[in-house]
Design brief:
The complex is a heterodimer of chains A (95) and B (495). By secondary structure, chain A is mainly alpha-helical. In chain A, 32% of the residues lie in helices and 4% in strands. Chain B is an alpha/beta fold and 495 residues long. Chain B has 15 helices and eleven strands. Classes of the chains: A mainly alpha (95), B alpha/beta (495). The interface between A and B is large, with 51 and 73 residues.
Chain lengths: 95, 495
């Protein structure tokens, strides 16, 4: 499948990565090449085949739904680019 | 002892226990070697103070008679592992300045066993790449050269810094991670040994996630025995990783007898690729002979869906990456873009990610976003997961026929020149993983063993693929292959 620049722009938006307009044609071309490569998968007969969920036949582990950790506000915030008064600070989200 | 850095883990362990050398001496020798090897760009964050502190503690422990195998062994750690208080950036700008408040399970186990951290090692950004050229730190350089030609070669990727550091004796061993071949391909390109264990053997906790259903950590070492020793220390059940296997870890080193009489080794016909250099075909044939001479039974096998492994991988890995990398939003850690007046939260996300992620990471995140988007999920993502089921079944079928291990080339070529693939289509670079990626998709253990030199004087590796959870048996077959191949070459020092 060939990807047009509108689709490339939409994907960039969904991925929250800014791509300047003049770069969209090159990006669309790269996507098209990768998808062309991926489309070999259409040759495979997958009728009745279950999609893989877990590569090793193991049941996901469960544990009691209880608090096991906490009281680490300082550590949680220590790498934040902007932390104030015990919170992560971000630009205004709600008008 | 003339050059301590050339020691293998097993030799150093024995010398430490015998009191012939101290961990501080070993560590200082490695730190000196690192200082003199800037041209390789293998270490991107050096931690000499931590190293000497750990070495001093290790020496005390050895003296007290409480010395596990890894006690006092100086190692390099791939930048993908979170190490407490030490930069852990996954070679990405987006994690600039990030210093984890916690330690990954694998490095915790290594340090608890007394291992010494010399520093963090170069890699492709978020482990996405096969040449170490996508790193925000710049490329790592292979210590090997083509004869007298001084052009720079890639150490492979994504664990390129780990491979270069081990091959150039800048540590005794290193950690790597492998999502599509990122331990085995660089090991093959630098003439060292690298094993990716069965999915679930090593905890993924605290390792920056790329594609969670494929990622596994493993050791990169100077020989198979060292791989067994270091892997032993890295493995084990971890309640903090829900996919970590609650299985006993056998004594891998004790399983290295070199006796493979009666073992059945499969040679998959689908791994004969068009355009593969004749030298690799020849090496593969030699490997087959060597294992036969060691008493193994060789059988030709078929893994019919091999051709579809790479395309399936390039759906599944980007899909998982797009989800895993959604956390890099400029809010909680790492890089944050500067906003202009009037810009809001979406501008923060979009600008931060455009500035923080390099081109290959952006490409994969967007491909992953596309294959998971409404309308394409079934056509791409679900189809790829079905093909993955078939690829795994290919292996299960041959194991059910009695095959103990599978012998293949590790890579379709020797190390290529840095920059050589610059103008190539991204898909061309992806072909590097053609022999290794099936193993990740099937969750199996795979080991790359150096087996010879090509006519340019560059190392070539063979890969052995084992049954799930049978790393011990696999390493023993690798040990037999290593002994038969007798590869002992080292790169001539030019750096």
């Amino acid at each position: 499948m060939s990807i047009d620049t509108d689709t490339a722009a939409r994907v960039a938006k969904l991925a929250r990565i800014r791509v300047e307009d003049d770069q969209l044609p090159a990006l669309a071309q790269e996507f098209s090449n990768i998808l062309e490569f991926i489309e070999q998968l259409n040759e495979v007969d997958v009728d009745g085949v279950e999609p893989m969920v877990s590569v090793t036949p193991m049941r996901l582990k469960r544990r009691q739904d209880g608090v096991t950790d906490g009281n680490q506000q300082e550590k949680v915030l220590s790498n934040a680019p902007d932390a104030r008064e015990g919170f992560f600070a971000v630009p205004k989200v709600v008008e | 002892m003339t050059d301590l850095t050339k020691m293998k883990v097993a030799e150093a362990r024995d010398a430490l226990r015998a009191g012939d050398v101290t961990s501080v001496e070993l560590t200082e020798a490695c730190l000196d070697a690192i200082e003199g090897a800037g041209a390789l760009n293998a270490y991107v964050h050096k931690t000499p103070e931590i190293a000497l502190e750990q070495a001093t503690a290790a020496d005390a422990r050895i003296k007290a008679g409480d010395a596990p195998a890894m006690c006092g062994i100086p190692m390099g750690i791939k930048d993908l592992f979170c190490t407490r208080g030490v930069a852990s950036q996954a070679a990405s700008r987006i994690l600039e300045g990030f210093r984890p408040e916690y330690e990954s399970t694998v490095t915790t186990q290594l340090f608890d066993a007394g291992a010494v951290m010399l520093g963090k090692l170069n890699m492709d950004e978020f482990a996405m790449g096969s040449s170490n050229e996508t790193s925000c730190y710049g490329k790592a350089v292979n210590p090997w050269r083509r004869g007298n030609d001084d052009s720079q070669l890639t150490p492979g990727g994504s664990s390129g810094g780990s491979a270069a550091a081990v091959a150039a004796d800048l540590c005794l061993a290193a950690t790597g991670t492998d999502t599509g071949g990122s331990i085995r391909q660089p090991a093959a390109f630098t003439g060292i040994t690298g094993i990716k264990p069965t999915y679930g053997r090593c905890s993924r906790w605290g390792i920056v996630a790329f594609a969670s259903s494929l990622d596994q950590a493993g050791p990169m070492t100077k020989d198979v025995r060292d791989a067994a020793i270091v892997l032993q220390a890295m493995c084990g059940h971890d309640p903090k990783d829900s996919t970590s296997a609650n299985l006993p870890v056998p004594d891998f080193e004790a399983m290295l007898t070199g006796d493979i009489k009666g073992k059945t080794i499969g040679i998959p016909r689908e791994y004969h690729m068009d355009g593969m250099p004749e030298e690799i075909e020849t090496l593969w044939a030699k490997g087959r002979e060597m294992l036969a001479e060691a008493g193994a039974k060789i059988v030709d096998i078929s893994l019919p869906h091999t051709k579809y492994a790479l395309p399936a991988y390039y759906v599944i890995a980007p899909a998982e990456a797009s989800s895993n990398l959604a956390r890099y939003d400029g809010v909680r850690y790492g890089h944050r873009a500067t906003l202009a007046a009037g810009e809001g939260i979406n501008d923060l996300y979009e600008k931060t990610r455009a500035e923080g992620f390099g081109p290959e990471v952006q490409r994969r995140v967007m491909v992953g976003t596309y294959v998971l988007s409404a309308g394409f999920y079934d056509a791409y993502y679900n189809r790829a997961r079905k093909v993955r089921t078939l690829i795994k079944k290919d292996f299960e079928d041959v194991f059910a026929q009695g095959v103990d291990a599978i012998l293949t080339p590790a890579t379709p070529s020797a190390a290529f020149g840095l920059g050589e693939m610059q103008d190539a289509d991204p898909v061309q670079m992806y072909l590097n993983d053609v022999f290794t990626v099936t193993v990740n998709l099937a969750g199996l253990p795979g080991v790359s063993v150096p087996a010879g030199l090509d006519k340019q004087g560059l190392p070539l590796g063979l890969q052995l693929i084992g049954r799930p959870w049978e790393e011990g048996d696999l390493l023993n077959t690798a040990y037999a292959l290593e002994r038969a191949a007798g590869f002992a070459e080292k790169p001539a020092k030019w750096w």
